[in-house]
Amino acid sequence: MTVSSPPAPVVVRRRTQADRSAETRGKVIQATVMLLQTQGYAATTVQRIAKTAGVSLGALQHQFPTKAQVMAMVLRHYAVKRARLYRRALSMKGSPEARVDAMLDTMWRLVTDGPEFLATVEIELARRSDPDLEAVTAPVLARIDQFMTRWLSGRRMAPPDPRFVELRLLNSALLRGLAVERARGVPLEDLARSFEVWRRFSRAEFLRIADLSA
């Protein structure tokens, strides 16, 4: 008779403090984005964030002592997500035309896939009247702008052509405007048609500058 061996014991890894902190951050990000989209910046207090996230106020403030630090964390999180989207879109695109098309497709996706982009617009607008928020988010936004300019130009390890900086500013302004129009209730199909108008201009200008910079 064959005697089967007893099953190996299941080893359950104990959650570490790092695990708990990461879980808290995830809940706080999700709650903050939702509140920014639905209530606006002024109404998105740390007390409301903690309640919506289902975490204690003490746990939230242990990681982020001020509201401004919560907002900077949301911007950093979204910047990482945006960078991943651009890298994925551009990773297999060799020709300038394919790179530009992939980039513009990703820009449209940023505005239409969920509330995060509008949440970042709310944070950026609030900086003008909140010195603490302006100070803590300035380095984050500067890194985002630098990343975007280098990826638009395709020169990630060298200073980009200044004309790409100008075009990046125009594209950023358009995306923010689309997010605001969507929040105002403009139908998505109307925004899509407007974006296509911009897409044709932007595509031609990107390729023109890329050709001049080559």
Automatic annotation (TrEMBL):
<dbReference type="GO" id="GO:0003700">
    <property type="term" value="F:DNA-binding transcription factor activity"/>
</dbReference>
<feature type="domain" description="HTH tetR-type">
    <location>
        <begin position="22"/>
        <end position="82"/>
    </location>
</feature>
<keyword id="KW-0238">DNA-binding</keyword>
<protein>
    <submittedName>
        <fullName>TetR/AcrR family transcriptional regulator</fullName>
    </submittedName>
</protein>
<feature type="DNA-binding region" description="H-T-H motif">
    <location>
        <begin position="45"/>
        <end position="64"/>
    </location>
</feature>
<feature type="region of interest" description="Disordered">
    <location>
        <begin position="1"/>
        <end position="21"/>
    </location>
</feature>
<dbReference type="GO" id="GO:0000976">
    <property type="term" value="F:transcription cis-regulatory region binding"/>
</dbReference>
<dbReference type="Pfam" id="PF00440">
    <property type="entry name" value="TetR_N"/>
</dbReference>
<dbReference type="InterPro" id="IPR009057">
    <property type="entry name" value="Homeodomain-like_sf"/>
</dbReference>
<keyword id="KW-0804">Transcription</keyword>
<dbReference type="InterPro" id="IPR001647">
    <property type="entry name" value="HTH_TetR"/>
</dbReference>
<dbReference type="InterPro" id="IPR050109">
    <property type="entry name" value="HTH-type_TetR-like_transc_reg"/>
</dbReference>
<keyword id="KW-0805">Transcription regulation</keyword>
